[in-house]
Amino acid sequence: MVSLPDNLMAIQQRIHTACARAGRDPATVTLLAVAKSHPPETIAAAVHCGLTHFGENKVQEAKAKIPLCPGKARWHFIGHLQSNKVRDAVELFGMIQTVDSLDLAREISKRAGQAAKNVPVLLEVNVAGEASKFGYQPHRLLEEIKQLSALPRLEVHGLMAIPPFCPLPEQSRPYFQRLREIKAGAEKILDYPLPQLSMGMSGDFEVAIEEGATIVRIGTALFGERRSSFAKTG
To answer: Taking the complete model, does pTM exceed 0.90, yes or no?
Structure first.
């Protein structure tokens, strides 16, 4: 049986150790618990353990689940966002981490204006140029970063990436380094800092922290293997 408190304690210790190696304050790293397919009861247990930030991959699942979860939970969207789901995403999430085009950013800005709220976002980068993955090509992101940052109601806080699967954590390092370099290039164009780098998952988050991650997205190491997708009942 999965012990959420034990898993959380182990992950927090690993975060502290990775930060110590990198000379960083552990308070600069946010643990984002990936809630995909896990029911509201699991989220409530995680909140009871002290977790605050949760990531969801699908708008429809989030729409059914979030109202049943503790109000203390803060939600990040970390899946591919389709334009026809933007209105719901703006309503449900405190941050959208997967903005991968100017058109999508404009739609978020439009819907955020209608909702009279500002939406913090991260720009997703396809760091390995994989045809099977979404995300900005690095050169296109740098070409469009000024337009993105100028959109009303949109707050660009940083970058996010999902590198290729690597069997060894160390093999992910070049991709994390690349994302950090792209962020530095975007900051130079904008002439102000982008504080967030969302990178690293259960298998490689320690390497990501060593390379500057401020948000690590952890599901399996925290909750165990995923169940079948949560569905609203009743």
So the answer is: yes
